[in-house]
Specification:
Helix content: 10-25%
Number of strands: 24
Largest sheet: 16 strands, antiparallel, barrel
Structural class: alpha+beta
Strand order of the largest sheet: 3-7-8-10-11-12-13-14-15-18-19-20-21-22-23-24
Strand content: 35-45%
């Protein structure tokens, strides 16, 4: 506003000064007309540069009389017409020349207005600079920090558990199957389970973070995610994250459970009315297979690399194919060439006839390399000790690789696992859903003749099949108060159907060579707080009697 007013004043001043200058110099040419002067003064008044009284006073100075009386006090001149009659002629209403005082006053007003405009402009610039320093810069800094904060997601959960293990009468005493110094006279340290019931209070705590390094919206090279998760547990049991209370209040360990980089990519536009996706993950990450705890414990994470492909991630069509492949090191030996590892591949098919129904069928094959034990030579009694597994539960057929009379157990056969899994999610009573599942596994790598040779048993048991059937009804994931589900499952897992190290650690207290039932119920106590109760009843399939019933009561919370 000040700039426009200043421009108006300057324009008016220039016109008046030019007129006044000509008058003072005695220039005979006429100055500004009365209409021009009045227009300038009205412009100044409209712009708020001068008040109405000042405009009237200035007109008086210019015209020599009050502006409103000019027309009244000036008598019209008369000129004779052709007939001698007098015809009025307009009087000379030109204003009197402006005095030097008037010009000086106008010039001073113009200067003051211009100075005020410049000062206001400087003040405005300073205020803008102050605003940027005090407001805009902090907001920009917060926006940058907020953008990074929005890329990071924290999550975690806590589980409190009571677990009671009730052993059947007549159970045989089970010994540790990894190593015994004197097999003919085992000590208390060699006993794994006896007939004494056990009551434990346990807990689990996990804290994870995911960070989006690249997003589909930023670049068309895909999405890159980095993540890690810390958990209770230890570095010796890959299938358990529980900590058992009752160690004289000692502090417990917190270890890395996951640490990975993951890349995903899909095209911007659908391909053949589908939205395919490719993914690649490496490090220590979640189970990449579509499976159940018949083969893989729910707490198990994988180390290595895996690649996945889906034909339609947006469910634009009722049919979807998916493929997963991975390679995973199990045991690295510095001075040996027989590192243990396994690779696997899976192909699956999804069919969604409607939004509330989903049927999934998958077939997987897992091939373990260098997993069998090698008998030590008496001259080099410890040379092949590395062929014994780092971790075992119980159930697999074992051989003794120690030639000195002590017991050093290793796996007696190879494991090449065929895994077929079917899952049906029926949401016809949505949000209550019914989930039906069935699974069959078989170890195709079992060699009966080789087992007989390395174990010295001419008639080894070949139990290489496993299966599971189950049903769950209710809310698949408990989130809010009042949500619930109940489920029943039957499992049969032969001694060498899968590798006992990685199967469910709760059923039959872990391992293979087990059959029985699992009854489960969950109920939401509050948002993200729920109660879980499980009853697991199992017996051995072959060998010494070992029956156990387990009760688990959990209070869970997540964020």
């Amino acid at each position: 506003m000040h700039m426009r007013n200043g421009v108006a004043v300057l324009m008016a001043g220039i016109l008046i000064f030019s007129s006044a200058g000509s008058l003072f110099a005695g220039d005979p040419s006429p100055g500004l007309s009365d209409d021009q002067t009045r227009a300038i003064i009205e412009l100044l008044e409209d712009k708020g540069i001068i008040t109405g009284d000042e405009a009237a006073a200035f007109m008086e100075r210019v015209s020599g009389q009050p502006a409103k009386e000019v027309a009244e006090t000036t008598p019209p001149a008369e000129t004779p017409d052709a007939g001698g009659a007098a015809i009025p002629v307009a009087a000379d209403t030109r204003p009197e020349p402006a005095t030097r005082a008037d010009v000086k006053a106008l010039r001073e007003d113009t200067r003051r207005t211009s100075d005020a405009t410049i000062n206001d402009q400087r003040l405005l610039v300073r205020r803008i600079d102050d605003m940027q320093a005090n407001t805009l810069d902090p907001l920009m800094d917060k926006a940058i920090k907020s953008e990074w904060a929005q890329r990071i997601t924290l999550s975690g959960d806590v589980r409190l558990r009571y677990q009671g293990d009730y052993f059947a009468e007549g159970n045989d005493i089970l010994l540790n199957n990894d190593s015994i110094s004197d097999p003919d006279n085992p000590g208390d340290d060699d006993v794994k389970y006896n007939n004494t019931d056990r009551h434990r209070f346990r807990y689990r705590a996990r804290l994870g973070m995911k960070a989006k390094l690249l997003d589909f919206r930023e670049t068309n090279i895909g999405k890159v995610e980095a993540g890690f998760r810390m958990t209770t547990g230890n570095e010796e049991e890959p299938v358990s994250t529980n900590e058992t209370m009752g160690d004289y209040m000692n502090r417990d360990s917190f270890v890395f459970d996951r640490a990975y980089l993951k890349w995903k990519w899909h095209p911007i536009d659908p391909v053949w009315d589908r939205m395919p996706q490719v993914s690649l993950v490496g490090g220590r990450f979640a189970n990449p297979w579509f499976s159940s705890d018949l083969v893989w414990d729910s707490d198990l994470n994988f180390e290595g690399a895996a690649v996945g492909y889906e034909t339609d991630t947006e469910q634009m069509q009722p049919f979807n194919l998916f493929f997963t492949a991975g390679i995973f090191p199990l045991q690295e030996e510095e001075l040996q060439s027989r590192d243990k590892w396994f690779w696997g591949g899976q192909v699956g098919f999804e069919y969604r006839p409607s939004y509330d129904m989903l049927f999934t069928l998958s077939t997987a094959y897992y091939d373990y390399q260098n997993i069998e034990g090698i008998q030590n030579d008496i001259d080099r009694p410890n040379y092949y000790d590395f062929t014994a597994p780092i971790f075992m539960q119980m159930g697999n057929t074992l051989m003794d690789i120690d030639p000195t009379g002590s017991l050093k157990s290793a796996l007696a056969t190879d494991y090449d696992i065929l895994d077929i899994y079917f899952n049906a999610n029926l949401g016809i009573f949505y949000p209550v859903q019914m989930i039906l599942e069935a699974q069959y596994v078989k170890n195709l790598g079992f060699d009966r003749d080789h087992v007989a040779e390395v174990t010295g048993n001419d008639n080894p048991v070949e139990d290489t099949d496993g299966y599971m059937v189950g049903a769950t009804i209710g809310y698949p994931v408990i989130t809010n108060h009042g949500e619930w589900n109940v489920g029943l499952k039957y499992k049969y897992l032969g001694a060498d159907a899968v590798l006992d190290a990685f199967t469910d650690s709760d059923f039959h207290l872990g391992g293979t060579n087990a059959k029985g039932w699992i009854l489960k119920g969950e109920y939401g106590l509050y948002r993200n707080v729920w109660l879980t109760t499980r009853w697991l009843s199992s017996d051995e399939i072959e060998g010494p009697q070992f029956g156990v019933d387990t009760l688990q009561v959990d209070v869970n919370a997540r964020f």
